[in-house]
Each structure stands twice: as structure tokens, then as C-alpha cells.
Design goal:
The complex is a heterotrimer, with 2 copies of chain A (about 190 residues) and 1 copy of chain B (about 250 residues). Chain A is of the alpha+beta class and about 190 residues long. Chain A has helices at about 5-15, 20-25, 30-50, 70-75, 85-95, 100-110, 115-120, 145-150, 165-170; strands spanning about 50-55, 60-65, 100, 125-130, 140-145. Chain A contains 9 helices and 5 strands, in the order αααββααβααββαα. In chain A, the strands form 2 sheets. Chain A has a 3-stranded antiparallel sheet. A two-stranded antiparallel sheet of chain A has the order 1-2. Chain A is elongated, with a radius of gyration of 19 Å. Among the domains of chain B are: about 10-95, no CATH class; about 150-175 and about 185-250, no CATH class. Chain B has helices at about 5-10, 35-45, 55-70, 75-95, 105-110, 120-135, 160-170, 190-200, 205-210, 215-230, and strands at about 25-30, 35, 205, 235-240, 245-250. Chain B has a 3-stranded antiparallel sheet. In chain B, strands 1-2 form a two-stranded antiparallel ribbon. In chain B, a hairpin with a 4-residue loop joins strand 4 and strand 5. In chain B, helix 2 (about 35-45) crosses helix 4 (about 75-95). Classes of the chains: A alpha+beta (about 190), B mainly alpha (about 250). The interface between A and B is large, with 62 and 48 residues.
């Protein structure tokens, strides 16, 4: 069984980005071999397939090539969930200033952000990281893996440098909290 | 042991709780060692931060006092309860997350002007990335609509209908049994699975779905999970001529 | 854009078996052409890929070949319970020091662990064992059967020896508390 084919099978079934470590563990080969084969797989897909290998949200994943977007859209008829301008603003502030409290966000924006923040938590783009050791023990918020995925980011380092707040960002680094626990659905999809 | 009359003089000092001081209920925990009365005064006079004091040992000490004392002085017991209630309420308020501004140094408050515009490049960058991302399609996870965005339609069902159903179930329930403190409780997600399994595919009344003996809190917990399932589009509800009916699955 | 590649893209994203009609509509070609290309795609996958085209439930779907079942299972198992670094840290401390209280965990880590501990209890990797006979009667935590299962351990003795804390571990022995008590479920109905 070639490592390349094994990778193809694993990345095909993976629902979230997989790291080279995870892939190596499953296949039982050293990481460097996986990295080697990932490169080859990426190249092969680029030349022969409508699929491509991407690095996203801290791992590898297979997705369709952009030129197939039209027919896939026609086939799936996916729901587009657009984010409003103010939601985007709150999201950007959370991304750069995390871990951040609601009142800190309010301060940056000059308006209340509770509604927006709640929406972002609902959409799983933002989640609670814990509580700040300050009066009232306010909740600290940060972005999720889902956020990286939805915005096609490999890590937070891909965000443009705004000349401030990177210190805080570096502190969080790319070790983002995992996706918030998802509700167990009744119908397990078997692969 | 000193007689009541001998202690009367000692007690006849007007404190925040009146003339009677709480009985000697000894509390011992990391943050505080002493009597309930002393703790009450310390908290009352802001000499101790209640956030650092766990309430469990205090409650236990109180319960111990109540259970162990045979000839309870009702007045004393009442004062003890008042002190305990005061502490619990204060603690509860302290634990509620508040919107209060955080203390900040002067430098910060001077610059406390909105500066959201500085994030503009980031917002633009994110929107561009979003556009690129919209052209990529991943398997499953991606294409499944987010549960929170599933439309839920309760059409003609009113809140009153649901309340009526809950009331009927509660009337059938047996009183709650005492359960040991700290008993692990099922999460809502788990409860939702239980409810989901119990729901039939055909519309049925809740009286026929929920059978057997159950307690009042079980009913409430069950119903809460049911409401959440309806919200997520995994359960359906409709009113018939005589009853409110429930079924599993999304509206087709 | 070849029909074959388009089919590959569509079958990749399809959640359920797709019929030739659905595929033909999305791509905008006659059904016979789709059926032709499906055959070619099936042949190509059989010879060059770890994936295969199957006819199932009245439609077509791509899935992994049976010979990859082992590594796919191995891969998907841990992925379902992906734990963040900090969660792993809390879990490791609980595993080695059980029965252990929250404040003891905090002490080891130097940061508050309440959020992490709650997450682990939710994931049923950790559960309450009882209460410590100490001021405040703090809750004692330990690992569950589920923990052994998820991490492929036969017993706690399989944990690597860290040169400490084995005494504490021995105290618990391998007689772990069972999975959190589950309440009787109503009659199981198949979904």
C-alpha cells in the first residue's frame, strides 16, 4: 500500500483539516515521509484532478478546484451565510485582540457589541476561552478553528499586520481553541 | 455549657443582624476559619472577598448545626439562616458576569476613544479571503447546513399550547427524590439524544410518548431538550384539534 | 472542462448518492454522457486510486476501497475526539494524579483549569469520583473507561511511566470508574 494512496484515502474521509502528525500516526510511517507524499499528492491532483490539496486551519484538506465552483454550487445549492459589516468588525477585533472581553470590544468600537458577539458565537466563529481575573469575572473571547476554515486562513499569522496588537496575537499563537463541541447528531454518517 | 440566660448579656449587642448573634457554627476552609457570625461581619464590612470563599463548607457547617442541634433556639437558627442567605446572595451577585467597566490605568482611559477604523484593512482582507474561500468545496461538514440556521417552523403552535402540554406532564409526575450533591448530571446534548430516540416518526401526543413514572425535574429536563430539538429542526410540533402533537425529524 | 472531472468534483462533495440525472443537470450534459463518463471514472479510480466509485441506494457515490478500512478507522477514531493542547494537559494530570481535585490540578498547571475540566467531563473522558474529606469537600476527578477506549489503553498501567505519581496511580489501581452513569433510555428505536 503506497503512502500516497493511503493519504488520498485519509484526506478523502477527513471532515476537518488533518495534520501531518495525525496522518503519519494513522498510516504508521514517519512524518517526513508523509510530508513528501503530501507534496506528490498535491502535484498529482493539480495535474489530473478536479480536486486539490490545500493547507487550511492548521492542516491539510482536499477540496474542489475554484473553477468547479459554478457546477458544484448548482449541484449542492448551498446556503450562503453572509456576515454583516458590523459582525465582520467585531470578528476582526476578536481575531486581533484575543483573548478579549466584551467591554474591551465595546471600547474599540465605541458601541455595544453584545448582539454581534452572540451571533458570532452562534456561528461558531468565536468562542469563550475562559474568564478574566477581573471584577465581574468577564468572559474572554477568541476565534475558533472554524473561523480559520471559513476565511481560508492557514493560521492567525495569515492575517495582515495592522502594526499593533500582534503581541497579543502572538501570545495566542496558532494554538486556537478547537471548534466548540458540536451537538451529537442522531444519524451517524458511516464512511 | 453556659445557660442561655448567662449568654444573654453577651448577645444583647445590636449588630447588622439584630440583637441576636448567630450560634457558634464553625467554618473551616482555606480562605476562612472561624464562626459563621465572624464571616458574616467580615463580608459585611468588606474585610474579606467572598469570591475567594467556597460556599459549600459553609452550607455544610450550617446543615450540620441544624441536624446536630436537638433543642434548637429558633431565634438563633433564624439568624444563622439569615446570615447564610446573605452570604449566598452576595456570592451569587459576585459571580454574575457584569458589564461593568474594568479598572484601567489613566493612560488607557485617555485613549479610550473608538478606534475600530484601524481594523479596516483586516476586515477587507477577511472579506477577500471569504470570496476566495467561497469557490472551494470540502466534503460533508461544509455542505451540511449549520444546525443553528435550520429553519424551524412551529406554524400555528402557540407558547400557551406548549405550556399546556408541560403542565399536563407535570401533573402526572411524582415528587422529586433527594439526590446526593454533586451527582453527575446528564448534559443537555445527551438528554436531547434520549428525547430524540423516544420521539416517534408519526405525530403523537406527548402523553403517549412519555410513559412510565417520572419526577417533576425529569419532566422539565425532558421538555427542555424537546424544545431545543424543535429549534434545531430535529423534532416537529403541530396542533391538532384536541392536542399538541410531536414527531421526530425535520419538516419535509 | 471534462465531464469526467466535473463528475469527480460533484461526487466528492455529494452528501448522499447522486443519480445520473442530478449529475447531468448540474453539469449541463445529456444523461448518457454522464453514464459514459461515470464508467470511465470508475475504471480510472479502480486502477489508480485508493477511492472507488460505487452504485448505492439508487445513485453513485465515491468511497474508499475496503483495503484502506484499517487505516481509515485508525485515523477517524482519534480525530473525532480532537483535544486541544491545554485539554490534553489537564487530562494527563487527571490520569496520573487521580483521584485529584480541581485546585490540585490548578496547582500543577499554574493556571485555572475549570473550563478544561468541564470540557473533559462533557466529553466523558473524566468524571467525578466523589468528594475529598477536606475543607470545602472538593470534588475528586478521575478518568473513565471512555478515556481508556479513546486512547487505546488496555488499562492505566499502559500509561508511560513518568517516574512520579505512580503511587497515587496505584492507589486507584486499574479499577476505573465506569463510564458516567447513564440513565435508563427509553426503548431504542432505530433512526
Amino acid at each position: 500500500m503506497s503512502v500516497l494512496k493511503a493519504l488520498e484515502a485519509l484526506l478523502f474521509v477527513a471532515e476537518t483539516p488533518a495534520t501531518a502528525e495525525e496522518l503519519a500516526t494513522a498510516i504508521g510511517v514517519p512524518i517526513f515521509e508523509v510530508e513528501d507524499s503530501l507534496e506528490k499528492l498535491g502535484g498529482r491532483l493539480t495535474h489530473t484532478s478536479s480536486l486539490q490539496l490545500v493547507r487550511i486551519a492548521g492542516g491539510y484538506q482536499i477540496c474542489t478546484k475554484p473553477e468547479y465552483a459554478d457546477i458544484v454550487t448548482k449541484f449542492l445549492q448551498p446556503q450562503k451565510h453572509k456576515l454583516s459589516r458590523s459582525l465582520m468588525e467585531v470578528l476582526a477585533i476578536v481575531a486581533y485582540k484575543q483573548p478579549v472581553t466584551m467591554s474591551e470590544i465595546d471600547e474599540v468600537r465605541g458601541v455595544q457589541s453584545d448582539y454581534g458577539l452572540k451571533q458570532l458565537v452562534e456561528k461558531r466563529l468565536v468562542c469563550e476561552l475562559g474568564r478574566k481575573a477581573a471584577p465581574g469575572r468577564p468572559v474572554l473571547y477568541g476565534t475558533t478553528q472554524q473561523f480559520l476554515h471559513v476565511f481560508n486562513l492557514e493560521s492567525l499569522a495569515d492575517l495582515p499586520d495592522l502594526g499593533f496588537g500582534r503581541a497579543a496575537l502572538d501570545a495566542v499563537g496558532t494554538h486556537l481553541p478547537p471548534d466548540q463541541p458540536t451537538l451529537p447528531l442522531p444519524e451517524e454518517t458511516t464512511v | 455549657m453556659a445557660k442561655k440566660s448567662e449568654l444573654a448579656a453577651e448577645r444583647a449587642v445590636v449588630g447588622p443582624l439584630g440583637v441576636t448573634s448567630p450560634p457558634e457554627i464553625h467554618i473551616e476552609c482555606e480562605a476562612f476559619q472561624g464562626s459563621l457570625g465572624a464571616l458574616f461581619l467580615c463580608v459585611h464590612d468588606h474585610k474579606i472577598d467572598l469570591l475567594d470563599v467556597p460556599m459549600a463548607p459553609i452550607c455544610e457547617a450550617y446543615f450540620h448545626y441544624v441536624l446536630a442541634t436537638t433543642d434548637t433556639d429558633l431565634e438563633q437558627a433564624a439568624v444563622a439562616l439569615a446570615a447564610l442567605a446573605y452570604l449566598l446572595e452576595r456570592k451569587a451577585w459576585a459571580l454574575i458576569p457584569t458589564e461593568q467597566e474594568e479598572p484601567e490605568d489613566d493612560a488607557l482611559s485617555i485613549a479610550a476613544e473608538p478606534y475600530a477604523h484601524l481594523f479596516e484593512p483586516a476586515v477587507r482582507n477577511l472579506l477577500e479571503r471569504r470570496e476566495e474561500r467561497d469557490l472551494l468545496f470540502f466534503r460533508w461538514s461544509e455542505n451540511v447546513r449549520h444546525p443553528y440556521e435550520l429553519p424551524f417552523d412551529t406554524s400555528d403552535v402557540q407558547i400557551g399550547d406548549l405550556a399546556g402540554v408541560l403542565e399536563r406532564l407535570l401533573a402526572r409526575a411524582v415528587p422529586d427524590t433527594m439526590e446526593p450533591l454533586g451527582k453527575p448530571r446528564r448534559s443537555l446534548a445527551e438528554q436531547m439524544l434520549v428525547v430524540l430516540r423516544a420521539l416517534p416518526l408519526e405525530f403523537s401526543s406527548l402523553d403517549s410518548i412519555v410513559v412510565g413514572e417520572f419526577t417533576r425535574s425529569e419532566v422539565v429536563w425532558w421538555f427542555l431538550a424537546l424544545l431545543e430539538l424543535i429549534r434545531l429542526g430535529q423534532a416537529r410540533v403541530r396542533v391538532s384539534e384536541y392536542d399538541v402533537l410531536f414527531a421526530r425529524g425535520a419538516e419535509s
